[in-house]
Amino acid sequence: MYKCCIFDLDGTLVDSIKAINHTINLTLSKYNLGPISEENCKIFVGDGYKKLVERSLIHCKDYDLKHYKDALLTYTEYFKIYCMYKVKAYDGIKDLLNYLKNNNIKITVLSNKPHKRTIENVEVIFGSEYFDYISGERNNIKRKPNPEGAIIITRKLNISPKDCLYIGDTDTDMKTGIGANMDTIGVTWGFRSREELESYNPKYVVDHPKEIIDIIKKSCVEINNL
């Protein structure tokens, strides 16, 4: 039976693309660039805000990244203001989280969003002290897809990776979960396609949070039948 679920945040627990897209477009407008569409933004996210800014500038033909250093500062300042802009939990997520808590399964977050903004998103949408552990991007932890952050969570909670589910919506997440030797679930309601997720061969790909409940229930039945 699984003892812990490690969730990505953006595109997995919360639909935050409008906040990210709004912030990057405000940033680009400072340099008379952009805007970029939400669909392009979904492709540019996943590897942290620095990569988002870099990819967005290149998309807007700043190939030499002459605005990059200033744009990082600008994005950070705007994101402090707009990180909750139209952010909402995906349908079925709160039911899934309540099921996990009611069955004594730890719930955690591992995000490439800056740590303070990660905590803000989680606490505004789900409440404070609801999750057992929250980790955003910090200087002392390697960013996903490096599995270090996921492994740190297992150590903090004294849980083996084989007893964890890693759940995310991008190629970055598939690499992270698989690299941490965790059963990995790709979710199709986020920012990337089913085809992209399946190309990394996660253990599961699901279309709705209730399917994760079914996976956990099935694992319990299988253990009981051993």
TrEMBL record:
Record SUPFAM superfamilies: HAD-like
Record-given protein name: HAD family hydrolase
Entry keywords, A to Z: Hydrolase
Sample GO molecular function, one term: hydrolase activity
Domain of life: Bacteria
Pfam families recorded: HAD_2
Native source species: Romboutsia faecis
Residue stretches in coiled coil: none
Taxon lineage: Bacteria, Bacillati, Bacillota, Clostridia, Peptostreptococcales
InterPro entries: HAD-like_hydrolase_sf, HAD-like_sf, HAD-SF_hydro_IA, HAD_2, HAD_sf, PGP-like_dom2
